[in-house]
């Protein structure tokens, strides 16, 4: 009898046999994420000479290495911000019904399937010194010499925008679809125009979702690696932090230093995400309003 009573009390608190369904996910997370993370963390503190912080000291004392933080932020922040802001008006329009909606959605999401390599090839073809853009501008007499879009900062930024926008768009569309449309209809019956409805009803309800979307877009952009090599200057203005970790690990075979750089990379991402979520929680304390 006591056993049955205990089982009921645990069930009321959500503790029952269905929790066993979480076991595969827990094992997967521990095996694929926690163990590699903890192994890399302890490896980053492996002393080279005398101190356990030698690898971190080596990274921050070398300006060529430490400036990769700023160079990566310089790419990731504007790319994430642009993708989120650009996705709002498009997703706002796409949540309604109109002819050709599915085709337009497919076109907007297609860049996900292209991959970084095809995106880089496209950028080189269109925006390279001998690309269509420069040849067209020269043909109409607007420029005398090719404008350098790629390789360089703008090439990598455009690559991040192209590959990151579909994710931001789909997330924003999901959040917008979860907002009750009757709220705007009620405001419309009171005489509110579309801008007033968007600014006073939709946008406040959407902001929590946009904060999460920005965090995901930022993390995706901050881990930029292939495009920084293919359409950037890997030894110059697109010497990003993931590239520094790769060179330390697989060119210099200094795995402790590579682990330390990876930990710094994760720390910067965590700081930005934490800051955005802190602002989100301070400005908005209600439900998200959308499906997120």
UniProtKB/TrEMBL annotation:
<feature type="domain" description="ABC transmembrane type-1">
    <location>
        <begin position="69"/>
        <end position="276"/>
    </location>
</feature>
<feature type="transmembrane region" description="Helical">
    <location>
        <begin position="257"/>
        <end position="279"/>
    </location>
</feature>
<feature type="transmembrane region" description="Helical">
    <location>
        <begin position="103"/>
        <end position="127"/>
    </location>
</feature>
<dbReference type="InterPro" id="IPR000515">
    <property type="entry name" value="MetI-like"/>
</dbReference>
<keyword id="KW-0813">Transport</keyword>
<feature type="transmembrane region" description="Helical">
    <location>
        <begin position="152"/>
        <end position="176"/>
    </location>
</feature>
<feature type="transmembrane region" description="Helical">
    <location>
        <begin position="20"/>
        <end position="38"/>
    </location>
</feature>
<dbReference type="InterPro" id="IPR035906">
    <property type="entry name" value="MetI-like_sf"/>
</dbReference>
<feature type="transmembrane region" description="Helical">
    <location>
        <begin position="69"/>
        <end position="91"/>
    </location>
</feature>
<keyword id="KW-0472">Membrane</keyword>
<protein>
    <submittedName>
        <fullName>ABC transporter permease</fullName>
    </submittedName>
</protein>
<keyword id="KW-1003">Cell membrane</keyword>
<dbReference type="Pfam" id="PF00528">
    <property type="entry name" value="BPD_transp_1"/>
</dbReference>
<keyword id="KW-0812">Transmembrane</keyword>
<comment type="similarity">
    <text>Belongs to the binding-protein-dependent transport system permease family. CysTW subfamily.</text>
</comment>
<feature type="transmembrane region" description="Helical">
    <location>
        <begin position="205"/>
        <end position="225"/>
    </location>
</feature>
<keyword id="KW-1133">Transmembrane helix</keyword>
